[in-house]
Amino acid sequence: MNPAPLRALARVIPSAALLLVMTACTNDSPSPSSSETASPQAATAPAATTPTGRTTEMNIRLTLNGHHIAATLNDSPTARDFAAQLPLTLSLRDLNQAEKIADLPRRLSTSGAPEGADPEVGDLAYYAPWNQLATYYRDAPYATGLVPLGHMADGGTGQLATADEITIEAAP
């Protein structure tokens, strides 16, 4: 048997596989017209509205220890699913002296969610493995299964650190 055809085939197969992967990952949508193309400055800043003019974030209000704190949910499928459960009043438990956690009434969608996240002070997140809302009043490490939902306004973390209950509702 002549090994030359096998060597040639061995060189072609990886290239063909790469071509198939690249083709499958491309967007077949038509290119936007020049009026739809974002300016370079707009491409680096987060979008505040959709093409239809709707905002992509949802303003909510947290009530902690009788104090109202403004917060914003992001426009992810998980955050939209969380917003569909509002209003909620949840009992909070402290975890690692960095976050308050609460059990949610039902599991949230994690469609398109990242594998995990590195939360920041003031973040609201969904911890999918335990079906819990996680709210951060101190820095915490990366956690697999953590899905960012939004962020509370400055000043809310002081109230969060001592709260035993949280009420979450759409902002009035």
Written overview of the protein:
With 172 residues, the protein is of the alpha+beta class. Helix content is 23%, strand content 31%. It contains four helices and eleven strands, in the order ααββαββββββββαβ. The protein has helices at residues 4-24, 40-44, 77-83, 156-162; strands spanning 58-64, 67-73, 88-91, 93-95, 99-103, 116-117, 123-127, 132-136, 143-144, 146-152, 165-170. The strands form two sheets. Strands 3-11-1-2-10-7-8-5-4 form a nine-stranded antiparallel β-sheet. Strand 4 (93-95) and strand 5 (99-103) form a beta hairpin. The chain starts with a helix and ends with a strand. The relative contact order is 0.18.
Main sheet makeup: 9 strands, antiparallel
What's the helix-strand series? HHEEHEEEEEEEEHE
User: Portion of residues in helices?
Assistant: 10-25%
End-to-end Cα distance, whole Å, is: 79 Å
Low-confidence stretches: 6-10, 12-55
Which strand-content bin applies to the residues? Answer: 25-35%
* Mean of pLDDT: 78
